[in-house]
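Contributing: when you submit paired examples, paste them exactly as shown. First protein:
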Amino acid sequence: MAHDREISEEQEFLDRALDALDHMRSEARSLRDSAAVATMRGAGDLVERDVVMGTALQRLDQLAIGDQSLFFGRIDYLDKDDGPGDTYHVGRLAVSDVDLNPLVVDWRAPVAEAFYRATGVEALGLARRRHVAIRGREVLGVEDEYFANEFGELQLPEDAARDATDEGLLDGGLALGGPGALLAALGRARTGRMGDIVATIQGEQDQIIRHPLAGVLLVQGGPGTGKTAVALHRAAYLLFTYRATLERQGVLVVGPNPLFLNYIENVLPSLGESGVTLSTISGLVTNVEVRGRDSEEADRLKGDVRMATVLARALRTRQRPLRADVSIPVGRAIVVVRPEDTADIVERARRRPGNHNQRRSAVGRELAARLASRYHDRFVRDQSEEAGGLNELADQIRGTYEFKQLLQRIWPRLSGQDLLHDLFGAPALLRAAGRGLLSDDETSLLARERSETLEDIRWTKADAALIDEARILLGPRKRPRSLIKPLETGILDGVDLDSFSGDIRAAALREAQRLIPTVSAELDEAEFVTYGHIVVDEAQDLSPMELRVLKRRDLTGSMTIVGDMGQATTASSSASWNSVLEVLEPRRSPTRVDLTVSYRTPQEVLDFAAPTLRAASTDLEPPLPVRRAGFTPVVDVVARQEFPAALVEAVHREIEVVAPGRVAVIVATQRVEEIVEILRHGGVAAVDPRDQDSKGLAADLVVVGAEGANGLEFDATVVVEPGEIARRGARGDEKVTPRGLRTLYVAMTRPTRRLAILATGELPETLR
């Protein structure tokens, strides 16, 4: 059979490529071992050894692909006049044989573009594109697509049989690369972790991935369009293409919550990139533990850009001259500090450049100098007391406890937490800072009782963004200190030291210690790391104040902003992409692209959810599906007393059908614990994936809050009480809100195969 022959052909090539990869690893290990025991004769040799060791360890890390397939595709170009066309195998990393002849090209290399971009209309010079299915060291199958030359002729092998690959695909003229491989990938059971799509990237996705580095790229994409995967693959592509720049400047990937970051954390390492920082917005704000939760109204207000002005005003109220005389002991005398002494000093300090804490020193120096001059005029010139120079006298005054207390009253040294705590705990300060900006009701929303210590405060996600804003106004409170970094920094991660002899192992440990910077500057809370490129996923849910946190981390103006306004679910969500860009203020004209094709979400689910999307956002249309799942979403409305049994039955049904896939029950966040208990009482092992002691999203059955479901995917989903979800943020007798409907739309579009709805109350009109 032709198919068997092609599998055998690719198996032979795979064996050859794996042998070459083993040789490359062996060379890297030899380089590492030789550097570890090299004889050093001088400082130059030490530096050279450091570089060689670092290079070898980095190379070993790049060559570690685990159980991922080495390559997944092949492209054959049209025959030339003088012979057959070129052939390239496309894989996760570049592999060459012992003579340095290329065997596999990296998927990010320019020559690999045709693998993703070629279509029947634009073949890009290809005669054939082959998708190769590999598990471990075995080729399981191949799928060939043939392209016509300029004369409309196909270069088919004599005995080639073209198998149909459109099972499960919809008719509609969409140009899909490797439809069989795509269907196989989409039909595979979910694992609870996002996998890379490097083998099945489609043309519209590849164009986004390979977009130039400079400027802001805005990607709008509905459910299942692969926008998260595209964003992560773009980060890997940029690191590959602009490595010299981005390894120095850094790449940051920002996700909506820790659960989402756990879901995506394996993607970049599987693509050979481990030097990327993953964080939430709150995670970028150091030394702030988010333990509290704001009301809907407070969250919306705290995310409003007006809060930047409120904080600036609040700080100004802390820069205040005295209202009454204060006495400062100097030597055997008393110097009186008058309000007029401090009024002009404070006013001049406000006009100085720099932040609040930096200007404090100038205030202290000027005030101490004035007091020293007054003391000198009174007690030294008439010889009533001896004293040193004015500078020494000023230093003496600044060192007194009374002067330090006085300076703290006039121009206090503050942290972001201090400023926010004092502001929200003092209604008078709130009214002064919000005058003309905030209504009385809004001021009341921000007020809260003062805590005994900062550690007692249950900071919220919105508070973290405000603290970051305050830190910029305040600046560092202290000078950087030096510290010794411990050895446990991961430089020998993946190296099996026990496999080496004692002298090599000891030398490697010594070398690792040398490679670690032994002294580094400890950053103050108000200082932070900036990045050469920032990838933001689910950006539609970020408030203006959170976007300002991102903007401060932007070093070069290079960002990839990914999201879907149809899935904006937070109280403080930005109203539109234009409002997002207004806050970010791109340095050059941004580029917007739309992902219009849904690969993950089947037609049945998208059709079922479409009325909910249109009711929530009249200007948005759902993406076009490419596949069908062969089922119709199930809607069950039961009596309240029947709900526990009906829930257990529905979950059992979905687990049995999609096994060994993953099932999620999605419910209003406040009911997650209740639903977990109902399922466990019914004999079903359900987990809250936020629980650190659980398997997380890798569990067979999870219960997820609708507000935190963005970006996740499951084989089957049971959405509980859609009416409750659709009422999110409702006031009075409102039955649905636009944000609630968008949250419901997110919940219903998580499955790749099956969707069930279970309710005891009235269904939203869009589901009837």
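Second protein:
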Amino acid sequence: MTFNGWLQIVIFFLVILALTKPLGIYMFRVFEGDKQPLPRVLGRLERGLLRLCGLKQPKEQTWVQYAIAMLVFSALGVLVTYVIQRAQGSLPFNPQKLPGVPPALAWNTADSFATNTNWQAYVPETTMSYFTQMAGLAWHNFTSAAAGIGVALVVARGLTRRPGPEGSKGVGNFYVDLIRGIVYVLLPISILVALFFVSQGVIQNLSAYHSVTTLEGGRQLLAMGPTASQEAIKQLGTNGGGFFNANSAHPFENPNAITNFIQMVLIFAIASALTYTYGRMAKDQRQGWVLFAGMSVLFFAGVATLYWAESHPNPIMHGLAVAAQPGNMEGKEVRFGIANTALFATVTTDASCGAVNGWHDSFTPLGGLVPLANIQLGEVVFGGVGAGLYGILINVILTVFIAGLMVGRTPEYLGKKVEGREMKLAMLYVLVFPLLILGFSGWAAVSSHGTSSLNNAGAHGLSEMLYAFTSGAGNNGSAFGGLNANTDWWNLTLGFVMLAGRFFMIIPALALAGAMLNKKTVQPGLGTFPTNGWLFTALLVAVILIVGALTFFPALSLGPVVEHFQALRGEVM
């Protein structure tokens, strides 16, 4: 661990902090303001798209209507993407003449991109045509991210809106939130970032692959394609699916230190800004800063642990007569080094992005534990766009309930009482996640369908299977590696887990918003636990850690922790 490494980590966080307020204000104006920005340009585009959808005067929806609209839209997206993949051999922009994608893999990929997971059980350069990448996958990068923002806004509205004399207006309109998220936020930022990436060397073309002569006199085929446009939304929308198999470790996707830094900033930007937007919606900015502070504490805990672990040699070298190394450089790009790889891995698994600039499978056992644990906390350490906000708000409800038990009165949040129905919905949200991860990991561990795909046995093999289902259920998309997930069994099970991890958790969140929406507010009393100070922040962090530790610690103990002690004993995995 070096001063330079820590300086880069601190600078990254300060940039995120600086962006949180202005971007948060901008998004509040977009989604909750009376007038949206740039009405003559973006406003016309928004109105045109709404008319195209048959919504000249869109009305607010109940949480049930919002959920149905989101589910139908997502289902149609899965179907369209599946058809595009299967038919890509006869579609344009396919200079490599790639054939249609096999059914199980096409279904897995369609589920993956529709759920903002972007799990890739295939090699993009040899599997997906340019048309599939642009019209099928990159399109989902916009829509799935915008849908996540919409769900976060619904939960925020349910908690912060006050019912009028005739009741509340509703939780919003799915199509309005979706279109505004794309038109005002995702699309303009992505265009600017894509142009910047092109200026830095990220490729953007529709050329056929180039065959070049190497320095050794051999021949190498260089993949081409419209990369910069997908790279921008891949990071901004916390999608993570790479245009190339090496993802952000590939020089055509991430050519230098500047692009590496910008990519990390993009991953956190919207999730961080939404905490400020929430403070504006609550009419108490300290409520938003409490969420930001809790996320920041967990972020620094993760990056410090991972940086420390990777700054030490692989424990398998303990006691061997070999020269001491500055750290574990296996699986890392030399141009990024240990600090930036540790930071990138922490950011991408905190934010359920899944993009990587190093190989998580090559981390030390304790280093590999950090990305795994980050996802298992439930997408709350900034989290995916939208998913991070509604995920941490569910934990806020749990924390408020615990605080209410401490003072012996009905818990309240923003003046609204949290009662039995809300707690049942919150617990349903919390329990879906471990049920998917532990249930399917256990099935894989005792099934020949699961273990036959492993390249590693023992504790590391268990970690690989656990990481796969954790990444799928957490809609992260990164992989531990060492696992051939492109089999029918893995494609089908992971496809189901990704869908369930997205929608089986969104529906309880929307229902909770609907339950809280029309509750009458009560004035705070002597027994009201304040939710806008450092004490609540500490309690919130403790609840997140305790829930995650109690749920997943036994599985983590059998995986990365056991592997660490085995390595110290000199047992090669």
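If you have annotations for the second protein, write them as plain sentences, like these:
The first strand starts at residue 210 and ends at 213.
The CA atoms of residues 425 and 508 lie 5 Å apart.
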